[in-house]
């Protein structure tokens, strides 16, 4: 099977967030989509190992924020390459809360949706949450970031927990454990600094 066929599917890039029992969580995802227009329903698929997924299971609600093309890699790193269990991802970003207290970012966001989960589907390693949209708002009239733009222009990579992750065996080198940037070559210079997130060589992992 040609794995590259999957690369022709079109995706957006979003931050999925939730809050439960005083704890906020959020992650980057490319799987948010509208599934029906009447009623207005959306679905998102997240890995079971994802802390945001685990809190959605408890809260029964989530917000989806549509990222714009001017989103910086620092924000992607914050929400995409660390766990909300260990870090307060909303500490350094502008955010609001919906009427149910769910935190969602507002900087570099074109629009947001507040969703109540009405059904979930177990997909083995992942869970699909299907929910009714209770509120939505356009926050900025800007070009939204597609998954292709993220890879081709931002030179971004995909976290292992993402549904679209594919192990790339054709490349050899070193991967930044913070943002996912790949340095092709061996050895990795001791004084190398990640061009995306500024992390030192010590956090790079051999691939």
UniProtKB/TrEMBL annotation:
Pfam families: Flavin_Reduct, RUBY_RBDX
Statement: the UniProt record of this protein carries the keyword Transport: yes
Domain annotation Rubredoxin-like: ranges: 171-207
Keywords of the record: Electron transport, Iron, Metal-binding, Oxidoreductase, Transport
Cofactor: Fe(3+)
One function term, GO molecular function aspect: iron ion binding
Keyword Amino-acid biosynthesis belongs to the record: no
Annotated PANTHER family: FLAVIN REDUCTASE, FMN REDUCTASE (NADH) RUTF
Identification of the protein by name: High molecular weight rubredoxin
Species, as recorded: Amedibacterium intestinale
Gene assigned in the entry: hrb
């Amino acid at each position: 099977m040609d794995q590259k066929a999957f690369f022709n599917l079109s995706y957006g890039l979003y931050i999925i967030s939730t809050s439960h029992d005083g704890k906020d969580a959020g992650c980057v995802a490319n799987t948010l989509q509208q599934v029906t227009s009447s009623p207005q329903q959306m679905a998102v698929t997240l890995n079971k190992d994802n802390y945001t997924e685990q809190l959605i299971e408890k809260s029964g609600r989530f917000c989806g924020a549509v990222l714009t093309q001017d989103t910086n890699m620092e924000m992607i790193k914050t929400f995409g390459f660390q766990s909300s269990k260990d870090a307060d991802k909303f500490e350094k970003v502008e955010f609001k809360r919906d009427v149910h207290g769910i935190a969602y970012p507002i900087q570099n966001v074109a629009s947001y949706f507040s969703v109540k989960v009405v059904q979930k589907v177990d997909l083995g390693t992942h869970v699909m949450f299907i929910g009714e949209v209770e509120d939505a708002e356009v926050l900025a009239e800007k070009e939204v970031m597609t998954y292709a733009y993220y890879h081709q222009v931002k030179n971004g990579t995909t976290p292992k927990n993402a549904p679209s992750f594919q192990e790339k065996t054709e490349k050899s080198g070193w991967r930044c454990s913070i943002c996912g940037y790949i340095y092709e070559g061996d050895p990795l210079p001791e004084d190398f600094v990640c061009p995306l997130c500024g992390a030192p060589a010590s956090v790079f992992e051999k691939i």
